[in-house]
Amino acid sequence: MMLSPMGLFHSMMNVELMAAKGVIWATAEDLSRNRGRVLSLYRQVLRSLNSPDLPLTWAARLSKKAEARSIFLVASEERSLHNIADLIDVAEYSLSVLSKGQIPKLPLI
Q1: Tens-place pLDDT, residues 52-93
Q2: Per the database record, which ranges form the LYR motif containing domain (predicted)?
Q3: Would you list the domain boundaries of the chain?
């Protein structure tokens, strides 16, 4: 599920509006709103790592999947609106690089 430009605009506006009010921590509503999107990105990244277009051995593929799982697991504890938006942007960028058959130069996510 890729976010449309308008959807990205609205999610970024929500972050900016919350920051303008002085609230920089995610509420339960913010977390539930991002949950489906993050789960979708997680599944897409894992699926993309299975692509035969990637020049990875079986062990390297398992290593990259473990890296992605650990990053998403650590990121699931994040409560800052800005950090959550940044993590989603990085995941979408990594997914776009993986879909081109390339491996991101820096850590996966």
Answers
A1: 889 899 999 999 999 999 988 888 888 888 888 888 898 899
A2: 30-98
A3: 29-108
